[in-house]
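Milestone 3.1: sequence recovery, worked example.
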């Protein structure tokens, strides 16, 4: 297993659109294991392959308190959304230290392949539903700060670039 470096906003590679996985083989299963290890190490609740510069439709999630319920979504598609949305505070491993409100569907049904390549439908609500929508945005090249006002987004961009400069000093 390997820990993978996570891309940081505003890295342009975060805006690449991921391609579907053709077959869930050993290569993809290794990717999934590495992504889970990276997510747990970073204390995140979700990670999209885009964030580790792999542009394939793979997501790992664990919203459990005990950190022992990994969920693997390969080629996820939203097949149903609730009629209602609400505002949630979100954060992202690619935008460390930034939390802000984003409107999401209260519940979604998602069809995806699991880590064994089996098709399944997940009925998600609350935190899991928010997390799935957030991670699926990553696969489309979208970072949550892009929902915020241009003013806020520019402030975040400046802050992130400053932190990067200080790190590389
Ligand atoms: Ni994120």
């Amino acid at each position: 297993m390997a820990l993978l470096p996570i891309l940081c906003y505003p890295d342009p590679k975060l805006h690449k659109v991921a391609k579907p996985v053709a077959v869930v083989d050993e290569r993809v299963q290794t990717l999934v294991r590495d992504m889970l290890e990276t997510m747990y190490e970073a204390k995140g609740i979700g990670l999209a392959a885009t964030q580790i510069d792999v542009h394939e439709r793979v997501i790992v999630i664990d919203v459990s308190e005990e950190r022992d319920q990994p969920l693997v979504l390969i080629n996820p598609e939203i097949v149903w959304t609730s009629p209602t949305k609400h505002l949630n505070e979100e954060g992202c491993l690619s935008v460390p230290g930034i939390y802000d409100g984003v409107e999401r569907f209260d519940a979604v049904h998602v069809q995806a392949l699991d880590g064994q390549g089996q098709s399944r439908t997940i009925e998600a609500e609350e935190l899991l539903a928010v997390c799935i929508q957030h991670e699926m945005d990553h696969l489309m090249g979208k970072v949550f700060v892009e929902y915020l006002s241009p003013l806020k987004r520019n402030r975040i961009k400046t802050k992130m670039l400053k932190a990067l400069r200080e790190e590389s000093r």
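The pocket of nickel (II) ion is lined by residues 92-94, 134, 138 (CB under 6 Å). The first strand starts at residue 46 and ends at 48.
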